[in-house]
């Protein structure tokens, strides 16, 4: 069991819940890698899958950023308050290849709530900054209000060793950054160098789809593009049979896959 | 595999059953309205372990209950407390009589998914504490096709004890596993089988094997299906399905489940209950995205999970050829027909 330590309103429909385990000894030993997820229970309402959106390089707590999307997430938003208990199982699943991307330029491409798993990796990489080379974050949302982690993004922008590019879908009066969908900005503004670069991307299915097309156009090899998949899950333990794509269990073999791996799966996600 | 065999006659077999029922918690096929299901029995007259008719439901619920309480919780001012449910995942040992070998094989197949990575300890406990006594069918049923699949029915080690009604009029009781051998040795049936017993067993098997209406070439079907993900045939074969999920619930190997909570005031329970990939909402995600929004995609998943994916992942076919699903389907869909028809379109 965990206590909700703090609730941060990110956007009109996303909130970050900062969680601390009730048992301090367990909190101490609770370790996870960026990209892993937990099964989060609001008891009596149900259980949902969320990635941990903070990094274990910042110990003592962990964050889940939750978008109001269905029955349980709506109950979480309306009923879960600071100081209340939630049930947590995990961490489950595989993680971003933090070793393999060492010594590489990193390009993060996120959309909407898709920044949540990337944030965990971004924090991890910032805390191990010397292991990684150039660092670019492209983040897009429908409107400026839909951007998550606004304060943290401001800090990233101030950090001279990070390049942060923001975009929203349609112009807004006070918006001074880019306007346009993520794949377009990727091609026209970011124009990333392919050499020695790994791309890590997460966002809504439609953004992923076109981002993959753009990355292909820009010359990125499928093995250098890493993403995390969302499939309906229940057990997170490779038992309930819900998350399968072919013989792959997304909950155990994923959720992190390279584009190369995704191409070898049956087209059913 | 143990080759411990004793021989007896009808009366001896009855005695063997009676002794077991007297000594252990015993389950066996019980008739109701001409159909059979496994029930707990305290007397041989209540059941028919030698029924030629297969049970409607598989053995599965005795190991993986239809609905299980997996956790309880209680809220008060200091927070939420979790506790185990009072449900007993079987502490003592039990014997199941009258099992068909396909059903026993079903458990062997389920073991693969339950014992990889995270181990389902309730399931495992029930497995370890159960002795399975199977009776080899004399004749195949109309929808049976177990001998066409990827396992050796004749030498199956999925059961602990196997009973065969020899063509010579004798009844052979074979201990297949150590557990089974022990069970036989603890009974009063001790007449060691004569030298010809092995021949009799294989003669019986030959006659049984010859009685099948349904046969398929498994290797070929498996190889073809691997390449037929995009086959339009899935649409044809599934068009009659009414997505009632009966086939999955009664299948010995289907194991998809859902987790749900129920809460009244401050107390609640978490349940784990059967679910099925034939459900339209099985993969429906919040926000409306559904990778399998139409029936043929769900039937494709069902067929390929059974005949390709599970085999690839765990080395066993996820269909044991029992025909339960074809018998109970309200619109007469049979997985045998489905996989054959789909693979037929490829030369
Ligand atoms: C690996 C992974 C990481 C995720 N990380 C996040 C995150 O960081 N933030 C966030 O807001 N969302 C995340 N999601 C999506 C989140 O799990 C769903 O939005 C959530 O389960 C919806 O629950 P609901 O009860 O509100 O929806 P309902 O539609 O009412 O769903 C009922 C049940 O179905 C299951 N379910 C429904 N949709 C999904 C889905 N998309 N994925 C998995 N299970 C689902 C859940 O068990 C849920 O309780 C993630 C999903 C996965 C698979
Ligand atoms: S039993 Fe028949 S109708 Fe019901 S879900 Fe299975 S195939 Fe469809
Ligand atoms: S799919 Fe049908 S034939 Fe195959 S094991 Fe399940 S119930 Fe038996
Ligand atoms: S979530 Fe249950 S098998 Fe993956």
Question: Helices, strands, pairings?
Answer:
The complex is a heterodimer of chains A (269) and B (347).
Chain A: E1 2-11, E2 14-21, H1 24-29, E3 37-42, E4 46-51, E5 62-67, H2 71-79, E6 85-92, E7 105-111, H3 115-127, E8 135-141, H4 150-158, E9 163-168, E10 178-179, H5 182-190, E11 197-202, H6 205-218, E12 225-228, E13 244-245, E14 248-249, H7 250-253, E15 256-258, H8 259-263
Parallel strand pairs in A: 7-8, 7-11, 8-9, 9-10, 11-12
Antiparallel strand pairs in A: 1-2, 1-6, 2-5, 3-4, 3-6, 12-15, 13-14
Helix pairs in contact in A: 5-6
Chain B: E1 4-8, H1 10-23, E2 25-32, E3 35-41, E4 67-76, E5 79-83, E6 94-99, H2 101-114, H3 121-128, E7 130-135, E8 161-165, E9 171-175, H4 178-185, H5 197-209, H6 218-225, H7 233-238, H8 246-250, E10 257-264, E11 267-274, H9 295-314, H10 324-328, H11 335-344
FE2/S2 (inorganic) cluster (FES) binds at residues 233-236, 238-243, 249, 251 of chain A.
Detailed description of the structure:
Chain A is α/β, with parallel strands linked by helices and 269 residues long. Chain A has 2 domains: 2-92, Translation factors (Elongation Factor Tu (Ef-tu), domain 3, Beta Barrel); 105-228, Rossmann fold (3-Layer(aba) Sandwich). Chain A has helices at residues 24-29, 71-79, 115-127, 150-158, 182-190, 205-218, 250-253, 259-263; strands at 2-11, 14-21, 37-42, 46-51, 62-67, 85-92, 105-111, 135-141, 163-168, 178-179, 197-202, 225-228, 244-245, 248-249, 256-258. In chain A, the strands form 3 sheets. Chain A has a 7-stranded mixed β-sheet with strand order 10-9-8-7-11-12-15, with helices on both faces. In chain A, helix 5 runs parallel beside helix 6. The relative contact order of chain A is 0.14. The mean pLDDT of chain A is 92. Chain B has 347 residues and is an alpha/beta fold. Chain B is built from 11 helices and 11 strands. A 7-stranded mixed β-sheet of chain B has the order 1-9-8-7-6-2-3. Chain B is globular and about 70 Å long. The chains are: A alpha/beta (269), B alpha/beta (347). The A-B interface holds A 1, 3, 22, 41, 43-47, 69-70, 73, 84-85, 87, 205, 230-232, 234-235, 237-242, 244-247, 252, 266-269 and B 73, 75, 79-80, 82, 113-114, 116-118, 120, 229, 255-263, 268, 270, 275, 277, 282-287, 289, 291-292, 297, 301, 304-305, 308-310, 312-313. Bound molecules: flavin-adenine dinucleotide, iron/sulfur cluster (SF4) (2 copies) and FE2/S2 (inorganic) cluster (FES). Flavin-adenine dinucleotide is lined by residues 37, 46-51, 53, 65-67, 69-73, 113, 116, 230-234, 255 of chain A. One iron/sulfur cluster is lined by residues 251-253, 306, 319-325, 335 of chain B.
